[in-house]
Specification:
The protein has ten helices and 13 strands. The termini are far apart.
Length: 269
């Protein structure tokens, strides 16, 4: 009887210790998150991040199918500073901001250009890259399309719903704008002569032209400076936490190190 009681007593104590350990682990996970992180995210312990996964060198899949790129490394460093782990959700660009709006994503880290129109709907972190627009065309057409003004009446390929599409409609209204869900289709059409030129981020353009080995070339100098930040639903406290984490990554050299790894230069300021 005594031995049976002892086994039950110590067994219960062991279960209690395990239970307290689990609770303590859960609490420490939540407490590890920055106080500005929303409680639902802190409790979950992961940050759900929208990326295209088809936008090299910012975010794309390598030969093994793993997500890699500047923004993947940046997001991992950022979430570590926030006391969280990243949960990447590859999403088509034309539905990405809608997914952020309805809560399927916590943030978007996908070269989202900070614009006044977008700032009315979303909060943005401090910029983590500064770039500009670049015209890409065939080598034989560089002089023909080396300024934005020369895109008038030209067939120009852009990503659907991007700031490049909006910029063309506003600044070169006579351009024939062709929209695409992904970059490979756009460049296939450029190679085949179905469009005359394309617009993209200067850093993406430089990486694509270097790696493609094809008939493509940048036309003219970059224009229309763009700052990209982490997009999130309106939340001043969460934005402040993300800003603080980014500035910490800037101060300790992490941002520069990641940038040099992917671009050979610092594109973060």
């Amino acid at each position: 009887m005594c031995n049976s009681f002892s086994r039950r007593f110590f067994g219960a104590m062991a279960l209690a210790v395990v239970g307290w350990g689990v609770l303590a682990g859960a609490s420490s996970t939540a407490l590890a998150a920055d106080p500005g992180v929303p409680s639902a995210i802190a409790t979950r312990g992961t940050l759900v991040i929208g990326v295209e996964g088809t936008y090299p060198p910012f975010n794309y899949q390598d030969e093994s199918g793993h997500l890699v790129g500047f923004e993947i490394d940046f997001a991992k460093a950022l979430t570590a500073k926030l006391g969280l782990k990243p949960d990447f959700k590859p999403t088509k660009w034309d539905g990405m901001l809608a997914a952020l709006t309805d809560g399927r994503l916590d943030v978007v880290i996908n070269q989202v250009t900070i614009t006044p129109a977008r700032q009315k709907i979303f909060d943005f972190s401090v910029p983590y890259t500064i770039s500009g627009s670049q015209i890409i065309t065939l080598k034989s057409n560089v002089k023909k399309f080396d300024t934005p003004e020369k895109l008038a009446h030209a067939r120009v390929g852009v990503g659907l719903g991007t700031n490049y599409e909006q910029w063309l409609h506003t600044h070169v209204p006579t351009a024939e704008v062709r929209t695409y869900d992904d970059d490979p289709s756009k460049y296939q059409d450029l190679r085949a002569g179905r469009i005359d030129a394309a617009l993209n981020d200067r850093l993406v353009a430089a990486d694509f032209i270097k790696k493609s080995g094809g008939p493509f070339a940048p036309a003219g100098a970059p224009f229309d400076q763009q700052e990209s930040g982490v997009a999130l639903r309106k939340n001043a406290g969460f934005k402040a936490a993300i800003d603080k984490a980014i500035e910490a990554l800037r101060a300790d050299g992490t941002l520069t190190k990641i940038s040099v790894k992917w671009f050979g230069i610092d594109v973060t300021h």
